[in-house]
From TrEMBL:
<dbReference type="InterPro" id="IPR016166">
    <property type="entry name" value="FAD-bd_PCMH"/>
</dbReference>
<dbReference type="InterPro" id="IPR051312">
    <property type="entry name" value="Diverse_Substr_Oxidored"/>
</dbReference>
<keyword id="KW-0285">Flavoprotein</keyword>
<dbReference type="GO" id="GO:0071949">
    <property type="term" value="F:FAD binding"/>
</dbReference>
<dbReference type="GO" id="GO:0016491">
    <property type="term" value="F:oxidoreductase activity"/>
</dbReference>
<dbReference type="InterPro" id="IPR002346">
    <property type="entry name" value="Mopterin_DH_FAD-bd"/>
</dbReference>
<feature type="domain" description="FAD-binding PCMH-type">
    <location>
        <begin position="1"/>
        <end position="178"/>
    </location>
</feature>
<keyword id="KW-0560">Oxidoreductase</keyword>
<protein>
    <recommendedName>
        <fullName>FAD-binding PCMH-type domain-containing protein</fullName>
    </recommendedName>
</protein>
<keyword id="KW-0274">FAD</keyword>
<dbReference type="InterPro" id="IPR016169">
    <property type="entry name" value="FAD-bd_PCMH_sub2"/>
</dbReference>
<dbReference type="Pfam" id="PF00941">
    <property type="entry name" value="FAD_binding_5"/>
</dbReference>
<dbReference type="InterPro" id="IPR036318">
    <property type="entry name" value="FAD-bd_PCMH-like_sf"/>
</dbReference>
Length: 281
């Protein structure tokens, strides 16, 4: 361990068992890898650190990237740029595009995939792809190891567990192919503000039939409605031009303005949805 100030101590674990022992024995310890999220709102000349820090950068298991026929797997300390370096043809396109729009190259070279999702913030760049692609997280506490679906991890029912001492060690994403994948980030590039939001539209087409669809929008809240997804399932593609206004009318009944944090986000959502539907004609 290295003493930074009389109030801040960094613990460096070099293997997983040691990491779990530190989690068990040191109260209020803060796990950190890239530390970009932790430093994000610090604007003073002096950087303020937690009393106890667990440095995850010396754990080789957290740096591993692998791919099988069934899934992609990323160690939680893999940086965002290391994932981009794999190329858009080698990872799910929606994940690639979401990471590409996070901050800038310098930040992405430090920020880790585990850190990006750990806070369960809908505004985090990879939040929607992780949810839409049915990602699972390997969660390690001082005592246990468990695989948790990302959908469960971000749920309010899991909030109390997110306050406990733990690390995300691996992220696993099913290796599935979607026919079309559209992701965009709304708001000031590289910055999270009141206008920031994300839109994700995935469809699977089999024999000209829309067999699966997932539509997500996230600002300060997550917006998804499976009723709308089911509305389109089973339709023959391409859609006719006349179908789009009918679908949009139904969408405005399902996705009401009250669900959106602003009129701007409401308008963006409808415009993006309409554009994607016309792209299916």
């Amino acid at each position: 361990m290295t003493e930074l100030t009389k109030n801040s101590i960094v613990y460096r674990a070099r293997y997983m068992q040691e990491m779990q022992t530190i989690l068990k024995n040191i109260s209020n310890i803060k796990p950190i890898a890239g530390a970009t999220g932790f430093l994000n709102h610090q604007t003073d000349e002096m950087i303020y650190l937690p009393e106890s820090i667990l440095d995850l950068n010396f754990l080789p298991e957290l740096k591993v990237i692998s791919k099988t026929e069934r899934y992609f797997e990323f160690g939680a300390a893999v940086t965002l740029n290391e994932i981009l370096d794999l190329g858009k043809k080698n990872i799910p396109p929606s994940l690639y595009y979401s990471i590409e729009k996070i901050a800038n190259n310098a930040i992405r070279s430090l920020a880790t995939i585990g850190g990006n999702i750990a806070t369960a913030n809908p505004l985090s760049g990879t939040f929607l792809p992780m949810l839409a692609l049915d990602a699972k997280l390997e969660i390690r506490t001082a005592e246990n190891i468990e695989w948790v679906p990302f959908a469960r991890y971000i749920d309010k029912s899991y909030a109390e567990k997110r306050e406990e001492k733990f690390i995300i060690s691996r992220i696993r994403i099913p290796n599935e192919t979607w026919t079309k994948s559209f992701y965009t980030r709304i708001g000031t590039p590289g910055y999270i503000g009141s206008d920031t939001a994300s839109f994700l539209f995935l469809i699977l087409i089999q024999k000209n039939i829309l067999s699966d669809m997932r539509l997500f929008f996230a600002s300060d809240e997550l917006i998804r409605n499976k009723e709308f997804d089911n509305l389109l399932l089973g339709r023959t593609l391409p859609l006719s031009q006349s179908e789009v206004p009918v679908i949009m009318q139904k969408a405005k009944q399902i996705f009401t303005p009250e669900q959106f944090s602003s009129e701007f986000h409401n308008s963006c959502f409808y415009n993006l949805l309409e554009d994607n539907l016309y792209n299916l004609t």
